[in-house]
Design a protein that fits this description.
- By secondary structure, the chain is of the alpha/beta class.
- The chain contains 14 helices and 16 strands.
- Strands 3-4-2-1-7-9-10-8 form an eight-stranded mixed β-sheet, sandwiched between helices.
- β1, α1 (15-26) and β2 form a beta-alpha-beta unit.
- α2 crosses α5 and α10 (311-321) runs antiparallel to α12 (349-360).
- The chain is globular.
- Bound molecules: aspartic acid.
- Aspartic acid is lined by residues 9, 37-38, 48, 50, 114, 168-169, 183-187.
């Protein structure tokens, strides 16, 4: 077994957390490649080291004193080193960082040090080889991630390394300058390493036992998802469910490697498996529910729209010209509706409206706001009768006014539009009908 294990910031926030991680790694010989994040929050009032680094570098860039802030960051690492009783020091590294900050080495260099230093401690603690991602995670000179070059370099390097720590979140451009992924990007590094070593599994250790069927801020202690496909996850993540960085799916997907989300604080839990495809049914017909508020829609009608070739294209053109991305376009015989994000749309709404009039000459146009979209996702829906019926009767019983229904052609999801004020009520009603009534 070859396992790649990534640990998030909360799993590495203190010496006590490091010890839990050490135990997890040592309990399985297969856990050979370790990807650490930077230390996260130790408690809810605490700061993430990455945020401290950004703030500290902002001072340096502005030519202000940053030494005290850098000393606070060093103290976070020293606390871990002392707590683990390691005979090891990062003093030389901090001297170098101070110098590079003074030389204005850049915000991405600054942020990357969070993972870099944590990786050094981790390698020392485990007795694994430290691999600097700047030598194996490649970006182009324009700053785009170069997946193939990275895969080549990473596989070559790790083929010669039995056990390694590869810090997450960053790599380098051809000129050697440091480039980071977007926030939460250590998940991507883990996936890249898993692909490169052709791992049997990519374990992603965090502080929850996998994905929940619904948002725990809306549903009290929701059930967790045992197994989910990449496509289902994509639908749920798009609609607001978050645990894993979205881009981290692509590298492992290329190799058909499963991801297992695990909880560092409850290693006995199975967590959630994310796989390409599975014969295992989800327990409740649906796999998950997610949603987002803050949408508005533009309702357009025109007599005989149905037979007017090019009408839809002209309407959508108006949105494209104003750089507005479209969420859903349900349509009727002589009507169509375009759902967009309120934040993107409001400042441009009148310009879009006049362009629709000019291009498509509709009879009537009306804008509605304060809408929420809810996605009910499940690979099992295709082969189960009555799913839509159950959803809509539950919503009717809960007195939710359904404003839009859209079933994706994959039959993997049903999207429901509701008013913002009915959003939580609608999610609870759907959760109850599929999960609570089955328990
Ligand atoms: N430390 C980085 C962040 O806070 C990357 C990560 O944790 O994945 O975004």
């Amino acid at each position: 077994m070859k396992k790649v294990v990534k640990f998030g910031g909360s799993s590495l926030a203190s010496a006590a957390q490091f010890e839990k991680v050490g135990k997890i790694i040592r309990s399985d010989e297969g856990r050979r490649y370790v990807i650490p994040s930077a230390p996260g929050k130790r408690n809810s009032g605490d700061k993430k080291v990455t945020d401290m680094l950004y703030a500290c570098y902002a001072l340096a860039e502005a030519g202000k004193n940053f030494e005290a802030q850098l000393a606070d960051i060093k103290a976070r690492y020293d606390e871990i080193i002392t707590g683990l009783k390691l005979d090891f020091s990062l003093s030389e590294d901090f001297k170098e960082i101070e110098k590079r900050f003074k030389d204005k080495a850049g915000k991405e260099y600054a942020a990357s040090r969070g993972e870099f230093l944590n990786g050094k401690i981790m390698a020392q603690y485990l007795g694994y080889t430290f691999v600097d991602p700047a030598t194996v995670v490649c970006f182009t000179k324009n700053g785009d991630f170069d997946a193939e070059k990275t895969n080549e370099k990473m596989s070559a390097k790790l083929a010669k390394t039995e056990k390694a720590v590869i810090p997450g979140f960053f790599g380098a451009k051809p000129d050697g300058s440091i480039k980071t992924f977007s926030r939460g990007g250590s998940d991507i590094t883990g996936s890249i390493v898993a692909r490169a070593v052709k791992a049997d599994v990519y374990e992603n250790w965090t502080d929850v036992s996998g994905f929940m069927i619904a948002d725990p801020r809306i549903i009290n202690k929701p059930q967790s998802i045992e197994i989910i496909t990449y496509t289902e996850l994509r639908e749920l993540a798009y609609m607001g469910a978050s645990v894993l960085h979205e881009d981290s799916i692509f590298p492992v997907r290329k190799e058909g490697i499963p991801i297992n989300i695990r909880n560092t604080n409850k290693p006995e839990d199975e967590g959630t498996w994310i796989v390409e495809s599975t014969a295992r049914k989800s327990k409740y017909t649906i796999t998950g529910i997610a949603g987002k508020k803050g949408f508005c829609c533009v309702n357009i009608s025109k007599d005989m729209m149905n037979s007017e070739i090019g009408f839809v294209r002209k309407v959508l053109q108006a949105f494209e010209d104003h750089d507005i991305s479209i969420e859903h376009v349900p349509s009727g015989i002589d009507t169509m509706t375009v759902f967009v994000h309120e934040d993107d749309f409001i400042s441009k709404e009148q310009a879009v409206v006049s362009e629709i009039h000019r291009l498509a000459k509709p009879d009537m146009l009306e804008i509605e706001s304060d809408l929420g979209l809810i996605a009910v996702v499940g690979r099992g829906m295709k082969s189960t009768r009555g799913t839509a019926g159950r959803i809509f009767s539950a919503l009717a019983h809960a007195n939710v006014n359904v404003r839009m229904i859209d079933q994706g052609s994959s039959e993997l999801n049903i999207i429901i539009g509701v008013e913002n004020r009915d959003f939580e009520k609608a999610i609870s009603a759907i959760y109850d009908i599929f999960v609570e009534t089955q328990l």
